[in-house]
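P.,

For your records, the input lines for the assembly:
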Amino acid sequence: MKILMVCLGNICRSPLAHGILENLSTEKGLNWEIDSAGTGGWHIGSQPDHRSIAIAKKYGIDISGQSCRQFVVADFDNYDHIFVMDRHNLSEVTAMARTDQDHRKVSLLLKNDVVPDPYYDDTQFDQVYKMVDKRCREIVEDFNTPG
Ligand code: 4NP
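Structure tokens returned:
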């Protein structure tokens, strides 16, 4: 299974989702490939935001080795699922879809909510972590259940 997590900057939310799902799938012995990207290109090559690195560390996950990259059309070919954090990410990514198959790969990470952008609010990182962690646990269970 190849899963790509996408947000706007690829420095706050999607690096957390990337690190959390990578960690959970490895714990379960799954041979999944996880990556993340941003629809925007402002931070290409940067480490995740220090607040995301810190909150992940608090829960035992090291995301400091990740490097920011921008979402590209080829990601539709290279991933089975593309999870986006909010409706803006959804419209940006689906606007780049070439086919119905590309479209079908893209969905909001959360089933009935969006992951809020914590960039301008330091207090939101813990909540973002918990929302993403809960959903990543469901994803691992869902995809791991036969049938
Ligand atoms: P992210 O947060 O999409 O969760 O990585 C943001 C990071 C940077 C910016 C916006 C959102 N920015 O405008 O630089």
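Two observations worth noting. The chain has a mean pLDDT of 97. Residues 2-143 form a domain with the Rossmann fold fold (CATH 3.40.50.2300).

Regards
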